[in-house]
Every structure is written in C-alpha cells, then in structure tokens.
Amino acid sequence: MSMIEFHDVEKYYGDFHALHDINLTIEAGETVVLIGPSGSGKSTLIRTVNGLEPIQEGQLIVNGQDLANPKTDINRVRKNVGMVFQHFNLYANKTILENVMLAPRIVLHRDETENKKVAMEMLDRVGLANQAPKMPAQLSGGQQQRIAIARSLAMKPKCILFDEPTSALDPEMIDDVLNVMQSIARDSSMTMLVVTHEMGFAQAVADRVIFMADGSILEDDSKEKFFEGEPTNERARQFLSKIIKH
C-alpha cells in the first residue's frame, strides 16, 4: 500500500521553480533517504508532504488524502504524519514530559492517564525516560532532538518526516540521534522519509536512496545499487565520489 504518492508535482516560490515534475511513490513501511547538494529541493519536497509547503501543480496523495484538493483537511493528514526538524522547537516553559504529552492531548484528545503512559514509553524508547521532569534547557542538543523524536512518536503516526535532524548538532551528539532513528526503522512498521547528509545512516537503514539536484529527482535506487553499484546519473556519481573521498 502506498503511503505517499507524487504525480507530476510542481512547486514554485514566485518565479523560482523549486520542484520539477516530481513523480515518486513511497510504500507503507519503507525507509527512504533523500540526499543531494544544498539547495536541491530535498527539504522543500519533504515539507510538501505534511502541507507546510503547498504545491502549485500535480497531485500529492498522503495516506489516501489528496493535498492538492482544497477540501482536504490538512490537520487530519498531520495526525498521521509526524515531522522532526533541524531545530527541536520544544516549549521552553514546559517539562520534557509535558512537551511529549501536549500534541496528543490537544489533537487526539487522548485520556490523560493513557497519554502519560504513552509519553513515558516513547521517552524510554529514545533512552530519556529519566529526563521527563527536566526542562528543555537542562538537556543537550542531542537529547532535545531525541525528545523531539519521542514527541512525534507519541502521536503514533503512520509516517515520520525527518528534515536533516542532525545538521544542527555537535558531532559527538549525532550518533545517539541516528541510533534512535535506526531503531525506529528496524523495529517498527513506520514509514520514514529522511533528508540527511549522513551516508552511514543511509547505508545502514534505507530501503531506497533518492538523489535530487536543482529541484529534480535524478536517481531513485536501492541503497545497494546506489552505494555498492553505480548510479546511472552522472551528477549523482560525482556527488557520491566527493562524499566517499571525504
């Protein structure tokens, strides 16, 4: 079953053509990694999936809902599509536990006893249950990003979008976040769409690797073909050779 379908999608910012003729299907349970040079349209593409960026042409279907249809309730779509950003966006005046419980309380109207139980389970899943009573400022950047992941998981979504979740972290904090993401990909049926520069993560958990440049998808391969074989697109080959050399 398809979770996300792009059909002839075009995206513009004024006269700037940000996404060109995007045709892409992501099946339920797949882990798909988007890579490519800065400014290639990766983050724009991922932000269209939960309606943060509207599309101008084409059709975008997410969990059976057509985002191009003005009658579609975007909040209903977002109940099933979590997102983890570069920056954590935690509420500084709420405890870690309160941050994780907030969206299920407001959006899902989850019973408070059940809500706390689920929140603690998700904090445990990211290895931070012991931090529940603390405030965000008391945690490191890597811990805050893991809290942001727990917050998304607490909604029990069918799909999570990750927009360069480690790019704002100090190098020594990156592995803990990537390990949590790997465990989600490995141990759940969650659909994951991940924009990242972490090639080790892509090689470890991706079902597919999508290479973008200049707003277009130039390569869509299994991770084995992309990393161990050779991409068919010359731009992708050049990008990969630079990544490997560094």
Written account of the structure:
The structure is a single chain. The chain is α/β, with parallel strands linked by helices and 246 residues long. The chain has a domain at 90-156. The protein has nine helices and ten strands. It has helices at 42-48, 74-79, 96-108, 112-125, 141-154, 171-187, 199-205, 223-228, 234-245; strands spanning 2-13, 16-27, 31-35, 57-62, 65-66, 81-84, 159-163, 191-195, 208-213, 216-222. The strands form two sheets. It has a six-stranded mixed beta sheet, with helices on both faces. Strands 2-1-4-5 form a four-stranded antiparallel beta sheet, with helices on one face. Helix 3 packs across helix 4.
Distance between the termini: 38 Å
Structural class: alpha/beta
The helix fraction, in percent, is 25-40%
Q: How much strand content do the residues show?
A: 25-35%
Order of helices and strands: EEEHEEHEHHHEHEHEEHH
In DSSP terms, counting alpha (H) and pi (I) runs of 4 or more, how many helices? 9
Largest sheet: 6 strands, mixed
Could you state the oligomeric state of the chains shown? single chain
> Could you tell me the mean pLDDT?
93
The 3D shape can be described as globular
Question: What's the alpha carbon Rg, rounded to whole Å?
Answer: 18 Å
Spatial sequence of strands, sheet with the most strands: 6-7-8-3-9-10
Low-confidence stretches: none
Quantity of strands, as a count: 10
